[in-house]
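EI: anyone free to look at a 63-residue chain?
SC: sure, send it
EI:
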Amino acid sequence: MNHSIHSADRATHLKIVVVALVAGIGLAAFGISARPTTDVAQIHVIKAGQPTMMSNSATSMVR
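SC: here you go
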């Protein structure tokens, strides 16, 4: 048994490439299937109103 990837034979390299390819395809398929889907009825449009001044301190703002 050889414990070095550098001196491994061709079949071992092929196995590693195939396993990495299958894992990559599986990860891509999981990522595509796990993304959220948006429905047109779920989109809410918020229109802009008058500009407001926001502050997180206790002091009052003078404009």
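EI: The CA atoms of residues 3 and 24 lie 24 Å apart.
SC: 👍
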